[in-house]
Amino acid sequence: DPLPEIFPKMRAVVAAHSTVLLESVLAGVPTVYFTAGLPIFRVYGQQSEMVKQVEGGAHSFADDVPSLVEALRTRRPPEKDFMMHHYAFDGRSAERLAEAVRHLVKA
Hints:
A three-stranded parallel β-sheet has the order 1-2-3. The mean pLDDT is 82. β1 (13-15), α2 and β2 (31-34) form a beta-alpha-beta unit. With 107 residues, it is mainly α. It is built from seven helices and three strands, in the order αβαβααβααα.
């Protein structure tokens, strides 16, 4: 089933580095960024937009099973305002990327 059809049935989404987290935030589903204690996710998450998203309230964070249980127990709706302020969800990303490439080619 397509995710937009599944989101209304979900109580939470748990994932490590997936665009599903972004899509679920936009759908208003509580999200948990779960690193499972794996260094690759912890290090990558610290070097990526995930830190800003967690700090901005878009996702809860869990690094191990006890913190995952707590994040799910205390789940809350995501702060969509943070995402809308920092990201463009207007369906024009391919157009912006093409424009950036054209600009780079001309430079």
